[in-house]
Input
Amino acid sequence: MKEESGRIKEVAVEAAREAGEYSLKRLGSLIEIAHKTSFNDLVTDVDRKCEEIIISRIRKEFPSHSILAEESGEDITGSTFKWVIDPLDGTVNYAHGFPVFCVSIGIISEGSAKTGVVYDPSRDELFTAEQGKGAFLNGRRINVSEREAVRDSLIATGFAYDISGKAANIDHFKRMLHKAQALRRAGSAAIDLCYVACGRFDGFWELGLCPWDTAAGQLIVREAGGTVTTLKGEPFDIYKKEIVASNGSVHKEMLSLLTA
Output
């Protein structure tokens, strides 16, 4: 089991790097763009090709494992392992040539995340974590920040594709804007979570998320010493639509502001 776990991480890293390198090679070139649920929910031929690259590697090494992928859906095999894949997180950024996008791969087993890999090809930054083994950036251990107040914190958020309902996030944004030192909205939840893990952000929240947005990043935050919950402070799992991730020290204050 231990050997299999190690190989799972290796394959996830290999797949993330290969897909990330392909997306970087195609950045700025002519790409095919289609719309999914709305005018601002995009998918490109690069998303699909990156997903093919990742799934091909998984199927070669672990043909019995289940897969949940953003573009091709779910393939349930009955295995205790499930790979949760976002082949190109930050597709709108990518389509505009804005270099904030990544590959996110989380491996779930028996209800919890065991391995998380996020690769940002633009900066050649590889974030990894295994349950109980810490979090790393390009092989060096990372930890969350030590800031203790929201007023001293750089906080990140995101906005859902559907801006008509609760997930619009505007009221939350206004409240946090008046309290935080600064807010950022980069357009990739996976990168935002990794930035919390390595101390670049002190906190992050978002609504209207899908499992592939958080499967890897939330584990990386936890393994870096951070805290991850819902907006109500309840335990988070990847099937929850909302997330609050922080260094732990500002978590209670963030929750208070977000639920005011």
User: Anything to note?
Assistant: Residues 2-26 form the longest helix (25 residues).
